Amino acid sequence: LTTLPVLSFTNIQASTTATVTIATPGVVSATGHKLISGSAVVFSTDGALPTGITAGTIYYVIATGLTANAFQFSTTVGGAAVNTSGTQSGTHTVQGNRWWTITKTV
Q: What is the CB neighbour count within 10 angstroms for residue 15?
């Protein structure tokens, strides 16, 4: 008998506090967020989010401006960055979903 590799899929989810710039485009700072381009994110707050972001709406991380501690986001996968304006208050939280990590086990 031959043992075949098994692929296991893990859905990685994380929630962290974040700050958002009022800018064109808006930039989210979230230390060590571990998100990748295409990750789905949802914002929440105990105050008010900037204009351009709606709490509970799914947005998508885009490749432009993506670093280990910051990202820009779009309303569609690979779309244009969201611009933010107005004022904001409170503590913002971003919940991200990195979708799938593939681990090979032999």
A: 13
CB of 30 closer than 8 Å to CB of 44: no
Taking the C-alpha atoms of residue 77 and residue 85, their distance in angstroms, rounded to an integer, is 22
Euclidean distance between CA atoms 73 and 88, whole angstroms: 18
CA distance 29 to 101: 23
Instruction: Tell me the pTM.
Output: 0.81
The Cα–Cα gap between 1 and 83 comes to 58
31 Ramachandran zone, left/alpha/beta (phi>0; psi -120 to 50)? beta
pLDDT digits (tens, 9 = 90+) for 27-67: 999 998 888 898 899 999 999 999 999 999 999 999 999 99
